[in-house]
Amino acid sequence: MASSSVQYYSFFFLLLLCTLATSTSSDSFQPKEKHTHLRFFFHEVESGPNATIYNVVNLNESSPSYTFGDIHVVDSILREGPDTSSLLIGRAQGVVFDVAMDRNAGLSIITLVFTAGEYSGSSITLLGMVVPPTSSERTVVGGTGQFRMARGFSLNKMILWEEDYLLAEFNIYVVHYENLGVSQLSQ
Hints:
By secondary structure, the protein is α+β, with helices and mostly antiparallel strands. The chain is 16% helix and 48% strand. The protein contains 2 helices and 9 strands. It has an 8-stranded antiparallel β-barrel. Strand 4 and strand 5 form a beta hairpin. Mean pLDDT is 84; it is low at 23-27 and 183-187.
């Protein structure tokens, strides 16, 4: 009899330890919300062998300007500064749809892929309207790496728009969670 009560209490004690270990490990994970302001420059080449935007659907082939219904793919350059020799920090990759019948305006879905610096290996995805040559505001709809569960907004100021070249300053205000690793997501 004594042996069965020792087994019972041992089983109960082991069950209690497992329960505490499980609740402690999941309760100890408290992601910390972080606010980050990023500032960098978007460099886009519109034609030639080094073009970073390409018109894949052109509904008005007789006109070189963008028209309603056109679709463009983008793989533009992100640099630390406005100068073309400043540090390359990543790429802006995505799609722009010309969606306005009465003006030059596009709906853009762009992922900012960081390849150098503090945020290398991370990305932020933006969604919103672009109306060159004016400034634009877009929504941060997500991110990867250090920007997992990102949300926020982007303010983009057009600095220069010449025949084949566009330069814009990007200021991104993003809320994300620091130290949100893959192992924590599976808990």
